[in-house]
């Protein structure tokens, strides 16, 4: 009892935690405030979702609980269901009247970002059945496409592209999804992006291209794909460095030879310091 009071739980929270369906029904019929939140900002709907109690979630939805309540981390019940792969509950929430599918947590992540990161294609498909904004950017400016590229979720990247996500949107640091794929050396995702007309020569805030990123990380196969797709191999970053400089600095001999074979300008120089 004291623990519940300290945690800020209502009787509805406690009944939900203990899966007492009949008690929950009595409390709702008796007029309990269904939207009370505990000290962590969690509602009874959060509890039911965390405990994977589909029938209780359904009862709470039918009772017109506020579906969009956020906990202290900015998570709605839908975020929670998505994060933990509770697909049946996610389905109920997605189709529930009044559920805002575009809400972001404290890091700016939407349910689509989370489903992408977790690799949950079923929930991604469910979200696409509704009118969601797939181009929302989180705190670093990443769309779900950036997340898919970074966490190497090729199937979801393909789905996002098919559904028309803005493929050339950049993060706050200027990186595109292709920069992230190049960092990881993910050739499958890089090809998906390139074949769907991503700007192959896009440069980030340091003026680095995907080829710079591939060179930095020694991703020879990825670099080969970029070169085969006619990337501008002589692009210089804000310091005047080309991918060749990067290979030389990081002793990437095989990749350096590949760039030479492809005809990179060997004589480009870095910026001359005025100091």
Structural write-up:
It is a single chain. With 275 residues, this protein is mainly alpha-helical. The protein has two domains: 1-133, Serine Threonine Protein Phosphatase 5, Tetratricopeptide repeat (Alpha Horseshoe), CATH 1.25.40.20; 173-274, Ankyrin repeat-containing domain (Serine Threonine Protein Phosphatase 5, Tetratricopeptide repeat, Alpha Horseshoe), CATH 1.25.40. Helices cover 49% and strands 0% of the residues. It has 17 helices and no strands.
In short:
Keywords: ANK repeat, Repeat. Pfam families: Ank_2 (PF12796). By secondary structure, this protein is mostly helical.
Record the SSE blueprint:
Blueprint: H1 2-7, H2 11-17, H3 21-29, H4 44-50, H5 54-62, H6 77-83, H7 87-95, H8 111-118, H9 121-128, H10 144-150, H11 154-162, H12 177-184, H13 187-195, H14 210-216, H15 220-228, H16 243-249, H17 253-261
Helix pairs in contact: 2-3, 2-4, 3-5, 4-5, 4-6, 5-7, 6-7, 6-8, 7-9, 8-9, 8-10, 10-11, 10-12, 11-13, 12-13, 12-14, 14-15, 14-16, 15-17, 16-17
């Amino acid at each position: 009892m004291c623990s519940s009071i300290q945690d800020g739980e209502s009787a509805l929270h406690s009944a939900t935690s203990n899966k007492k369906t009949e008690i929950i029904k009595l409390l709702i019929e008796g007029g309990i405030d269904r939207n009370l939140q505990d000290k962590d900002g969690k509602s009874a709907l959060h509890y039911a979702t965390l405990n994977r109690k589909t029938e209780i979630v359904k009862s709470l939805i039918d009772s017109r609980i506020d579906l969009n309540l956020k906990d202290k981390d900015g998570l709605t019940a839908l975020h929670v269901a998505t994060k933990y792969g509770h697909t049946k509950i996610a389905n109920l929430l997605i189709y529930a009247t009044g559920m805002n599918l575009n809400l972001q947590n404290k890091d700016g992540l939407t349910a689509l970002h989370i489903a992408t990161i977790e690799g949950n294609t079923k929930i991604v498909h469910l979200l696409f059945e509704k009118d969601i904004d797939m181009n929302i950017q989180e705190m670093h400016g990443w769309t779900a496409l950036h997340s898919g590229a970074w966490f190497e979720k090729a199937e979801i990247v393909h789905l996002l592209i098919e559904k028309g996500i803005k493929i050339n949107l950049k993060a706050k640091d200027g990186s595109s999804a292709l920069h992230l794929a190049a960092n990881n050396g993910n050739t499958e995702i890089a090809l998906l992006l390139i074949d769907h007309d991503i700007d192959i020569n896009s440069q980030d805030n340091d003026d680095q291209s995907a080829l710079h990123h591939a060179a930095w990380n020694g991703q020879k196969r990825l670099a080969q794909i970029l070169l085969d797709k006619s990337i501008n191999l002589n692009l210089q970053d804000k310091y005047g460095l080309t991918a060749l400089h990067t290979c030389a600095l990081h002793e990437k001999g095989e990749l350096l030879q590949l760039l030479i074979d492809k005809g990179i300008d060997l004589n480009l120089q870095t910026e001359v310091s005025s100091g």
